[in-house]
Amino acid sequence: MDLLFSASVFLVIWWTVLFAVLPLGVKSHHEAGIEVPGGGDPASPINPNLKRKFFTTTWVSVLIFAVVWVCFTFHLIKLPTY
């Protein structure tokens, strides 16, 4: 796997994991029974913890990418060649 292909695979994995991690542990204003300030959406999260979710997304993505890299490196998965 060359560098550009590896980076693109990692980016796809990272975004997929991010969308899987984002809803975890989120509590909305409506669920908590808190009034929404300034007429906002009642479904908006109270504390989304984005920094923690970005770190979680990154290390989970690194683990998944490591498995994919090993599979490609040791030819457990073959890519078609043209």
Explain what the structure shows.
This protein has one domain (3-73). It has helices at 3-21, 29-32, 50-73. The chain contains three helices and no strands. The mean pLDDT is 92. The longest helix is centred in the last third of the chain and has 24 residues, at 50-73. The two termini are 15 Å apart. By secondary structure, it is mostly helical.
Number of domains: 1
Number of helices: 3
Decide which structural class fits the backbone: mainly alpha
The shape is elongated
Tell me the helix content: 55-70%
Kindly report how far apart the N and C termini lie: 15 Å
Order of helices and strands: HHH
The value of Rg in angstroms is 19 Å
Strand content: under 5%
Keywords:
3 helices, 57% helix, 82 residues, single chain
